[in-house]
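Annotators were shown the component list below and the corresponding predicted structure, then asked to write short factual statements about the assembly.
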Amino acid sequence: MSKPGEADGLEVFGFFNEVGIINQLSTAILAKSLPDGVHPSHFSIINHLVRMGDGKSPIRIAAAMQVTKNTMTHSLKVLEERGFISVEPDPDDGRGKLVRLTEAGRAFREAAIRNVMARFGDVIEPEHRAIMARLMGDLVVLRKHLDENR
Amino acid sequence: MSKPGEADGLEVFGFFNEVGIINQLSTAILAKSLPDGVHPSHFSIINHLVRMGDGKSPIRIAAAMQVTKNTMTHSLKVLEERGFISVEPDPDDGRGKLVRLTEAGRAFREAAIRNVMARFGDVIEPEHRAIMARLMGDLVVLRKHLDENR
DNA sequence: CTAATATAGTACGATGTCGTACTAATCAAG
DNA sequence: CTTGATTAGTACGACATCGTACTATATTAG
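Structure shown to annotators:
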């Protein structure tokens, strides 16, 4: 069953299919844990700014989030309207802007994290945490390779 | 570093994050391999009908694809306009419909598969195929658990 | 048989994301 | 310095997806 060529290709296909379904299901759980109007991608941006530090340009955030700068412009507009971030011109680059978290943004993240953890805790059992921990290393290798060769 | 509670939660979070990025990157590769106007989700529907057999109702396909029936109505409309499927009333259920693949749909799938395989072949090396094969079992366990507990 | 409930599918509007095109600012070449 | 090329961000339209509401048919309760 492991003939080279077509068979291997189908295995790759199946792998990406499983990954896609897991992503969809986990995103759905996350979405239900967030207040109305806050999309998982919005939460992801705030989370990234907390973990990696704010004061970054929209384009750098877009690259980290794997979305286009168009999408980032739109998402940042939403987050700014909600008062979770502030966007100001970059004093060192007339073209650029800098994104900073507000206190409301940090507070929102804390509350959301608690909420999400609780939901995940309801669904994910120790057995599955173990699987995740075991797979992480390989996933990171794959992700980096795909990221560098797109 | 492996204290129970918050730390474990963050590991779960990180896992889903990696999965999300891999999914996004692989979907992007797939999208580039398909002709204009054919979305990865459309391809996925055709692929599912070939593998699992056609003559299924939209709602069953929607469940299998992990999308709402709204989305399926829309996607099927696109596929029907392109001549890849035919949608007809279910003779046994006045509410239902049955989706069947056309010859054009099957031919499209064959061509698309070849195209996608070639793209994946350019990016994915034996080392990474090995990783995928190794992870598949665990991923299936996770996917099934999430699917049953959503 | 009739009424209440459930299910399949559609209609409509909202939103996230992307591609193309555009502006403004920076950088590099001469 | 000037010109051409690159980069940051925005504007606009297209599209996939979702949530809510609706219609039509099936199923179940009485």
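Statements collected:
1. Residues 37-148 of chain B form a domain with the Arc Repressor Mutant, subunit A fold (CATH 1.10.10.10).
2. Chain B is about 70% helix and 10% strand.
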